[in-house]
Write a structure and sequence with these properties.
With 799 residues, this protein is an alpha+beta fold. 25% of the residues lie in helices and 28% in strands. The chain contains 19 helices and 41 strands. The strands form 11 sheets. The chain has a 7-stranded mixed β-sheet, with helices on both faces. Strands 3, 4, 5, 6, 11 and 12 form a 6-stranded antiparallel β-sheet that branches. A hairpin with a 7-residue loop joins strand 34 and strand 35. Helix 18 packs across helix 19. The protein starts with a strand and ends with a strand. 34% of the residues are buried.
């Protein structure tokens, strides 16, 4: 939000410079993000002075040039060669002296140097208004009034006042500070000075010749509607002072009527709208909602289809303005306008916010209405604007003020305790100081006791409704920097459940990062078309767009969008992981599920001169999954193949009915939805289940065995449906003490084998912690394993 230093001083009287005010504003919660000097015209007329043309004679070598001598207030007059047709002896003019930089309306700035023009010395330039940014005419030089003081800086003559622009990072809860008045109110409270409000005592109705009837059909969406009519106005360019005020804060002047409404909006925080009264059919205004799909052309020339929930300002025949958001094409003031209907209303913030979002319209008015304006400001702003219109556009007030306010907004009743305020702030602030701060902010004390206050909080403070809000207000004005850091810190012992969730997550994240994975954070809002279980979809009531209309049911689809984004930018080798949540609606309850996702695509290594990279495969993913499971110390789980819509193929590690992790290849349908054209593999961990398993794990420390391990290999024929996991389970059931590990090192399937058969080559690691194993012991164990493999899996051992 942009705030002008000079404009602020219309509401408060202070000698503090902009830099000092900047620090104060930041300290009281209105953070100044930038402060810059602003000049009404580029260059600020620096170096330009008022001169008096003493002589003016034709140039001896040029018909269209004149050689002049000009008194600029220096010890000696200067000679200036001038090409303007209207230059003459005795004139008071604006002169750019040597060394001055001139900023014309068009073209680049240039510096005035002493030079020779057709043989005659020229020590400056007599200026036209477009050459110094004071107008658009280039017909001749500017000729000033006779009373202009010779040598006076042009900046002073034209009353050019430098200004300073505060860029304030306004938080959404500070609707009360969305204007110069609101910011000045906080400064006045901090500085303990008076706040000056615009004078409206001179407002009076001249006649009732332009009375326009007003009907508010929806008092919920429009609790208050104030209006007045003004006749006989003349629409023209605004005076310089008004244009300068608006230009400083980045508002483009349009005409005196529109500029006044903008001036009041940014000054007092109350949006206004000026209608051409002669364009209102039936001399009537109706505030109502219209039928769904009603076409309406806004000021920007775009036809929009209205919702039945949009509040509209209508005349007797048609809608003319979207209330609080945007005007209609023919509703505004034009150069031919002579009669005005001026609106100053208080609209429901939720209604305006939904309408603005529905039509993707953001205006200065909707910005304030969405956050909440002051219902008690409508009439004050209306009268102030009407007086300005009379002053700058003429005309007369031709109706009484219409003020429809059926249910006045009452001040918030808040009880505060001095003890609670000092306890929350952490400093012993005197009771009188607390009371003084509260009253300086415009809050009324209804009653007082030794323990606290009963307060009436005014309607402009829409965010102050509780004791803690009052405490925050006191702390802002008292000053955060005035709260001393205590020399003593109190702490208490706390019990935290094991394992530590964050620490466990960091351990896994560090391991994955060390293995070349990059962490990604995807948006929890995603497309509804990605949801596969429609019964559990969590819908967004007010989605930003159709691409962000539901909460994600899986981490995969947003991650695939990241894969596609990288692949489209020649970065196809991706290794991602994400810790996140999925969201589900189950039995009318919202459920969040913590997950861990791994994603692989592209090549398994960067390209080298002596080695070609291989594409990643399912086994690269399986190695990463096993690494995560192993790092968490999880060993007891079962394995089975996956056959569902979420994977083209894959495996599942599970315990009982719960899946620890499912991993495999992304389906073609999922890749197509996200425009991914390469193979992608992913793993989906149930992170909550993993933490629960880790919590139950028992860590046992023991010495490294002193005795050697022995490896034995077996090659066997098995049926094609027999899995390695089944063979491994049979082996461990056979020998639980000495068998330490089973691995597969070769698989063969081909036409040289019997039908429906495959060849497995397994190695078995045996070890005894107490002694060296003998051949007899080893052979006995292996014979039992061979026998059980043959019996349970019909394995044929190959000699």
């Amino acid at each position: 939000m942009k705030i002008s230093y000079n404009w602020l001083k219309q509401f408060i009287q202070t000698d503090l410079n902009p830099q000092e005010l900047s620090l104060i504003l930041t300290n009281i919660g209105l953070e100044v993000e930038s402060l810059e000097k602003v000049q009404p015209v580029v260059g600020g007329l620096e170096g330009l002075v008022i001169g008096h043309v003493l002589t003016c004679v034709p140039h001896s070598n040029a018909d269209k040039l004149r050689v002049t001598t000009v008194n600029v207030g220096a010890a000696e007059a200067i000679q200036v060669v001038c090409g303007a047709p209207n230059v003459a002896e005795g004139q008071k003019v604006v002169v750019a002296t040597v060394g001055t930089t001139v900023y014309p309306n068009e073209g680049e700035p240039f510096k005035i140097n002493k030079s020779k023009i057709r043989g005659e010395v020229s020590e400056g330039m007599i200026c036209a208004e477009d050459e110094i940014g004071l107008g658009g005419s280039h017909a001749g030089i500017m000729v000033l009034a006779e009373d202009a003081l010779i040598g006076q800086p042009a900046k002073d003559y034209f009353k050019m006042e430098d200004d300073y622009l505060f860029e304030i990072g306004l938080t959404p809860n500070r609707a009360d500070a969305a204007s110069h008045l609101g910011v000045a109110r906080d400064l006045a409270a901090y500085l303990r000075i008076d706040l000056k409000m615009p004078a409206i005592d001179s407002f009076k109705t001249a006649n009732e010749n332009l009375t326009i009837a007003v009907e508010v059909a929806d008092t919920v969406a429009c609790p208050r509607y104030s209006s007045v009519s003004i006749s006989g106005v003349k629409v023209k360019t605004s005076p310089d002072w008004l244009q300068d005020k608006l230009k400083v804060i980045g508002i483009r002047p349009i005409n005196n009527i529109v500029d006044i409404t903008n001036y009041v909006l940014h000054g007092l925080g109350q949006p206004l709208h000026a209608f051409d009264a002669d364009q209102l059919s039936g001399k009537k205004i109706i505030v109502q909602k219209v039928a769904e799909g009603t076409p309406f052309v806004t000021l920007d020339g775009v036809e929009r289809k209205l919702s039945a929930e949009d509040l509209m300002i209508c005349d007797a025949e048609k809608p003319v303005t979207i209330a609080g958001v945007y005007g209609g094409k023919n509703s505004g003031v034009s150069a031919e306008t002579t009669n005005i209907f001026l609106e100053s209303a208080y609209f429901n913030s939720v209604s305006v916010r939904k309408t603005a979002k529905r039509h993707t319209l953001k205006t200065d008015a909707s910005f304030r209405y969405e956050r909440g304006t002051d219902p008690e400001m409508t009439v004050t702003a209306l009268k102030y604007a009407a007086l300005l219109i009379q002053e700058l556009a003429g005309g007369e007030i031709s109706s009484v003020v219409s003020d429809i306010y059926p249910a006045p907004v009452a001040p918030f009743d808040v009880e505060v305790s001095y003890k609670n305020i000092t306890r929350l702030i952490g400093a012993a602030i005197p009771d009188e100081e607390i009371k003084a701060i509260i009253t300086s902010l415009g809050i009324t004390v209804a009653s007082e006791t030794a323990e606290g206050l009963s307060l009436k909080v005014p309607s402009f403070k829409v965010d102050v409704t509780r004791e803690c809000d009052i405490t925050e207000e006191v702390l802002r004005i008292y000053g955060y920097n005035n709260i001393e850091i205590p020399s003593k810190v109190n702490a208490s012992l706390t019990f935290s459940a094991k394992p530590d969730r964050e620490q466990t997550q960091h351990v896994v994240a560090d391991m994955l990062t060390a293995n070349g994975y990059l962490e990604i954070w995807c948006n929890s809002l995603t497309k509804g078309t990605y949801s596969k279980n429609t019964e559990e979809v969590v819908q967004i009531l007010n989605p930003l767009s159709s691409d962000l209309n539901v909460m994600r049911q899986s981490l995969l689809m947003p991650a695939l969008e990241s894969v596609a984004y990288n692949q489209n930018r020649k970065n196809g080798d991706v290794k991602f992981y994400e810790f996140g949540k999925t969201y589900h609606l189950i039995n009318e309850k919202y459920v969040e599920r913590p997950r861990l996702l791994l994603v692989l695509s592209g090549s398994d290594a960067t390209e080298q001169w002596n080695q070609k990279p291989a594409p990643v495969s399912f086994y690269n993913l399986k190695a990463a999954v096993d690494a995560v499971i192993g790092r968490l110390g999880i060993t007891n789980y079962q394995t089975e193949e996956i056959s569902d819509e979420n994977f083209a193929f894959g495996l599942k590690y599970f315990r009982g009915p719960q899946a620890i992790v499912s991993f495999g290849a992304v389906t073609a349908a999922d890749k197509k939805q996200t425009d991914v054209d390469k193979d992608v593999y992913y793993a989906d961990f149930d992170w909550a289940l993993l933490l629960d398993i880790v919590r139950k794990n028992k860590v046992i420390s023991k010495e490294i065995p002193k005795y050697p391990a022995v490896r034995r290999d077996l090659s066997m024929l098995v049926d094609t449906e027999v899995t390695f996991e089944a063979l491994k389970t049979i082996a461990f059931k056979t020998e639980k003490k000495l068998l330490k590990n089973v691995q597969i090192f070769d698989v063969y399937v081909g036409d040289k084998l019997p039908e429906n058969k495959k060849s497995y080559a397994l190695n078995f690691t045996l070890q005894d912690d107490q002694q060296t194993l003998t051949d007899k012991q080893i052979d006995a164990v292996m014979q039992k394993i061979i026998a059980n493999l043959a019996q349970s899996a019909k394995a044929e051992i190959r000699k």
